[in-house]
Every structure is written in C-alpha cells, then in structure tokens.
Design a protein that fits this description.
Distance between the termini: 33 Å
Organism: Micromonospora harpali
Protein name: Prolyl oligopeptidase family protein
Structural class: alpha+beta
InterPro entries: AB_hydrolase_fold (IPR029058), Pept_S9A_N (IPR023302), Peptidase_S9_cat (IPR001375), Peptidase_S9A (IPR002470), Prolyl_oligopep/macrocyclase (IPR051167)
Number of helices: 13
Keywords: Hydrolase, Protease, Serine protease
Shape: globular
Radius of gyration: 25 Å
Strand order of the largest sheet: 31-32-34-33-35-36-37-38
Pfam families: Peptidase_S9, Peptidase_S9_N
Largest sheet: 8 strands, mixed
Length: 688
C-alpha cells in the first residue's frame, strides 16, 4: 500500500507561492499540456462557440435591480462589451422589446483609458438623492476591490471624492458627506481571515487615516461591518463583528455613539424594516417573558423559524414575538424580503419553491399566496423596492424552461416583462425528482434532467453541500447546449450541508459530520446506476469551491463510482486551508486543523492527504485562477502535483485572472466550460 501523505510531509508547498518563478513555470507547463490535449479538435471549437453564443446572446433577460429612484439598473456583458456596461432606464422603457438604456459607466472604455484590467464588482448608490454612488472595481476579478466615488449626473468619477485603495473593503453611505468604511488601514487592521477589523466614519474632504473609529472587532473574528438605513423616520446605523461564518454580534449605533445590543442569538440572522425586527433562527431559542404566554414563562422557538417583533420595544427589553414561519420535515425557509408594507417569504418544500406574502395588520399578520408564481417552475424573487412601494420582480424557470420575468404589485396586477430565449431543444427531455437512500438511511433528493429513453448514457452529476446553500432548479443554456442537447443527462444532488431543508440539513454535515454530505453524494451516484440511468464508467461529477472539495473526496474516497471528475476552484488541503487567504473564515464549517481533535476527522477526508497511488482513480480535471483570492490556487496546484506523482491521470488549467469564478469575461467563461465539457465527453461519451 502506498503511504498516504502526512500532514507535515508536504513536498509541494512551494506551489503556494502565488507568482513565484518556479510555481509560475509549473503552471505554464501544465496549462500547455492541458490545452494541447483538449483544445485542438472540432468538438472543442464547436463547444466554445456555442457557449459563447449563449453568454453573449442579445435576447437574454437584462435582469434589473431597483435602488429607490423608480429606475431599472442593469449591468450588461456581451460581445461588444466584454467587461460590461452599467446602465439604467425607466419602467416604461424597460417594458419595450429593445429599451433605450442610459449608460452610466462603460468598464471596457475605462479599462482602456486607465490601462487597468478592471472587472465590475458593483455599486452602492446614495439614498436618498441617488446622484452619487461608490463603484467597486477589481483587478482581474479578485475579491479585493478599488472603491471610487462616481457622479451619476455627470457620468464621471468625482475628483477628490471618496476613494479606497485595493482591499477587501466594505462601504456604506450615511449621507452625502459621510460614509462608513471597513478596509485595510495598515498593520493590525485586518483579522486573521484577511478582512477588515475596524469600522470608521469618514467625512468628506478629510484624510482617511484621521477618520473616527466607531467600532472595532477582534483579530480572530472574521470581520467587522457596518450598515446604515436612511428610511425617513427610521434612520438607523448598525455595526457589528462576524465571530465566524455563522455567528455575529450586532449593535444599534445611536447618534451619541452609544452601542445598543441587538439581543438575538449569535447564529440568528435578522433585519430591521421601518418599525419591525425580523429574526431567522439557525438553532432553537428559549425566550422568557414572551407576551401572551401565561405567567410570562419561557417559550422555545425551533431552528428554522422566522419571528417578528416591534423593533423599538424589542431593544427596550419587551419580547412581543410573533412566529411567521415554522419549518417541518419537508419544508424550510429559504429567504425573505420586504416591500414597503409587506413581507414576502420564500420557502422550499422538497426543494420546490413556494412564495407567500405576509401583511402586518391590527396586531396580527395576514398571510396569502404571492400572485404571479407558476405552480410547476422554480420561482425566485429578483428584487423589491421598499423605499418606493409594494412592487416586486419574479423570475420563474426550470431545467427545461427558460426564465420569465414578471412585475407584480402586492394586492394588485402581475404582468410579464421579459421572456428568456430557449438555447436548446427540450422537447424530448424530462425533469424528474428522485430520492436516494444515504448510508445512515436519510432520504436525499436529486433532480434528473435528460432523455428518458437514453438509458445507460453519459451523465453529469453536480452538487455543493455546504454553508447552508441550497442547489435549486435553474435553466442553463451552457449545460443545455453543451451537454443535454448532445445526449447527456444532468443531475443536481441536494445533499446535506446545504440549505434545502433548513438549518438542520446544514448542521447534519457540519464539522465532524462532514462525511454525511459525501455519503449522500455517493448514494445519489449509486442510485443513478441502480435505476439504469447510467453506469459508473459513464458517470462524471463536477463541483466548484466547497463543491470542489466534494469532487476531491469523491475522487479519493469513492473513485469506483465515477468515470471522470472535475473540480473548479477547489478546496483540497484541509491541513492548511485556514492559513491560505480567506480560509480562516470557514473554520466554523469545517473545523480548526490546529486542534488535534478537529484534525483527527479532517485528516480522514482531506483529499490532498488521501491520494493513494495503489488505487485506480478516474481521470481528473482541476481548474483554478491565479487571481482567486478566496480559495488559494495552491489547493489545485498541489493536488495536481500529488496526483501526477502517484501516477494518476490529471489535467490542470489555471486562468491568469478571473477570481473565484475562474473567468473574468465571457470569452474566458466559454473557454473554461468548453474545456470542462470536452474533458467529460472524452471520458464519458464513448460507446455504452
């Protein structure tokens, strides 16, 4: 038996040197090998061209966002604008088949003018007023950004305006002359996770170093943060510290500078809207003195519940809590959003979307279905505009159905605004939901899309299973064109660790229980074979980020189940992940490798430490980005080197830019996906 790697026996740590000459040379050699092997044929060229056509299509839905000024904002990328344009239009214009757009910022023109590889990362608009914004731009797609003040009237950056150097910054407007800033202020100002530790109130025209510190967290926190609500009559500033990925400590910052604790469980998520406080629970919460309970005794609210309380009364100590949602074994709260006077709840029932609207009235909350939601498609809330009124935007789609965008008014009409084009022929395809049985007896749902008559064919299985993030039905022109239309089946597994069934589904695969997620995924793979949908030799899997860790575990723990494995921007070295870039912020999810008790279970599944040269592995493709400043490319580099050393077939591609998405523009996205699908077809698409 080949000796597995010891935690301190890491001969490839030199590949963590991001731009070191030896590491860079190794990357160039691996890229050249992969491109020579996979990109030369007609099929690759056709795949890349078809994917690029999907990404650049002029008739895609230009999904809008609202910012309180009755206008529809959109960021748009196409062949003529590979870096994108930020634009806006009126509601009447948006309804037209080809709206007239007011272009606010052309990122391609800006990059050419300044000689920078700018990638758009969003904008924060001043409310009220809407005449200024803070634009975030990254170099090459990294999480770290440069922040610059932009005049929306003159369409120009503000000379001597608010400007921040490249950092993982968090900014919010207070008023036209003040912003709250969390950024890199120099030595001691960042947490061990690499995020800001302090928040300052910065007044226009003054030096940033002299800005007043209004809040400071601890070095071992994930980050400090701040937000400001400018709603007239309800102006509030909040500050806080993220203790780990799931827990935080939050305060109302009074005009006098006093901090008043938002006394909710540290792992709860909450928001304040006008007179209301809404609290979502990740764990059970026992509360004494709840209004309406005989004797004011304690009441325990379950994990996954959503509660509401009058904001001012809650901060004053009263506990007038109303339960807005209670989960059950099949149903979980996905998210919620406010309009001006209503609360929209999005729930999942066996991973099928449900939306309803709640209205506070005379001491109770009226509940009714949200209008405009199709019964058999997945529907998501695109946006609301609580500054303005009770309108909402909905997008409904399915694996085979392109999206339809609708505009509704709570209690009023619903109209169809846009329909997305179909990028592939779905006439012969079906969408089915099955349940696999995991090793401990848990029923694990998964969606299967494909030709029901194509038994035993090439099948692509994907999943995530982490951070309480659900994998939901969606329409993908890339998967449709590049996989389904060519005869493949596509499967999305809803494994534990995600948010498909709420906090309990996530907690079931947390820390030492992480192997439950991997057992779930393996159960789905086995179920696909048992149903005759595919065979192990024709089953491939793909995952990214935490899903890349999933791919690494499938490769090293369950290699007999797959014919090919693809990992995008993967997390693979669980001994050193917390020392690389943002890795320390994920210890609440995985554990602390420096704690012997935690390392004892991390060691058992860490892909990098479990590469076995005496066991047959399926061919593997690893894709990452040099500019990924979230998951260090060293994970993929070292894994590829270890696999090569142990005699396994591995292809490696590292994009020089692109950040955590491994691509900075549509040309790069088309290349990465064509590379992925070509690799899978090579190894899975042969004769049955």
């Amino acid at each position: 038996m080949t000796r597995l790697i010891d935690e301190d026996d890491d001969a490839y740590r030199w590949l963590e040197d991001l731009d070191g000459p030896d590491a860079a040379g190794w990357v160039r050699d691996r890229n050249a090998e992969t491109m020579a092997a996979l990109t030369g044929g007609d099929r690759f060229a056709a795949l890349r061209a078809e994917i690029r056509e999907v990404l650049d299509a002029d008739d895609r839905v230009p999904y809008p966002s609202w910012r309180g000024d009755h206008l529809y904002y959109n960021f748009w990328i196409d062949a003529a604008h590979p870096r994108g344009i930020w634009r806006r239009t009126t509601g009447d214009e948006y309804r037209r088949p080809e709206p007239h757009w007011d272009v606010l910022l052309d990122v391609d023109a800006l990059a050419a003018q300044e000689g920078e590889n700018w990638i758009w990362q969003g904008a924060t608009v001043l409310r009220p007023g809407h005449d200024r914004c803070l634009v975030s731009l990254s170099r090459g797609g990294s999480d770290a950004t440069v922040v610059r003040e932009f005049d929306l009237v003159r369409r120009a950056f503000v000379a001597d305006g608010f400007t921040l150097d490249e950092a993982k910054s968090d900014v919010t407007w207070v008023d036209a002359d003040h912003i709250l800033v969390a950024t890199d202020f120099g030595p001691g100002s960042l947490t061990t996770s690499g995020y800001p530790r302090t928040v300052r109130r910065w007044r226009r025209g003054t030096p940033l170093p002299s800005a007043e510190v209004v809040f400071a967290g601890q070095a071992d926190d994930v980050s400090a943060y701040a937000s400001h609500d400018p709603t007239p009559g309800f102006e509030r500033t909040f500050v806080g510290r993220r203790l780990d990925f799931f827990r935080s400590e939050s305060y109302l910052l009074t005009p006098a500078g006093e901090r008043v604790r938002i006394d909710v469980p540290s792992d709860a998520h909450w928001d304040a809207h006008r007179e209301w406080l809404v609290i979502g629970l990740r764990s059970p919460w026992t509360v004494d003195g709840v209004a309406g309970v005989d004797g004011g005794g304690g009441v325990t609210f379950p994990a996954g519940a959503l509660l509401a309380a009058p904001f001012d009364a809650f901060l004053a100590g009263a506990r007038e809590l109303t339960t807005l949602f209670t989960p059950d074994e099949r149903t979980a709260l996905s998210y919620h959003a406010w309009t001006r006077g209503h609360l929209i709840l999005a729930t999942l029932a066996d991973v099928r979307s449900r939306l309803e609207v709640l209205t506070p009235s005379a001491g109770h909350w009226r509940r009714e279905p949200l209008a405009g939601v199709p019964e058999f498609e997945h529907t998501r809330l695109v946006d609301t505009d609580p500054d303005v009124g009770d309108a909402y935007l909905l997008a409904s789609e399915g694996f085979r159905q392109p999206a339809t965008l609708r505009l509704g008014q709570v209690g009023g009409p619903v109209e169809t605004l846009k329909r997305a084009p179909a990028f592939f022929d779905a006439a012969r395809l079906t969408e089915r939901q099955h349940f696999a049985t995991s090793a401990d007896g848990t029923r694990v749902p998964y969606f299967l899309v494909g030709d029901p008559d194509a038994a035993g064919g090439p099948t692509l299985l994907t999943g995530y299973g982490g951070f309480e993030v659900p994998e939901l039905p969606h329409y993908s022109g890339i998967v449709g064109r590049g996989w389904l239309a060519r005869g493949g089946s596509y499967v999305v597994a809803n494994i534990r660790g995600g948010g498909e069934y709420g906090p309990a589904w996530h907690r079931a695969a947390l820390r030492e229980n992480r192997p439950r997620a991997y057992e779930d995924f393996a159960a789905v793979a086995a179920d696909l074979v048992a149903r005759g949908i595919t065979t192990p030799a024709r089953l491939g899997m793909e995952g990214g980020s935490n899903g890349g860790l999933l791919a690494g575990v499938m490769l090293t723990r369950y290699p007999e189940l797959f014919g090919a494995v693809v990992a995008h921007v993967p997390l693979l070295d669980m001994r050193r992940y917390h020392k690389l870039l943002a890795g320390a912020s994920w210890m609440a999810e995985y554990g602390d490798p420096d704690d012997p008790a935690d390392w004892s279970y991390l060691r058992e599944y860490s892909p990098y430490h479990n590469v076995d040269g005496d066991r047959a592995y399926p061919p593997t493709l690893l894709v990452t980005s040099t500019r990924d400043d979230r998951v260090h490319p060293g994970h993929a580099r070292k894994m590829a080197a270890r696999l090569r050393e142990r005699g396994h077939e591995v292809a490696y591609y590292e994009n020089v830019e692109g950040g955590h998405g491994a691509a900075a523009n549509n040309a790069q996205r088309a290349f990465v996906w064509a590379l992925t699908l070509e690799f899978l077809w090579r190894h899975l698409g042969g004769p049955a």
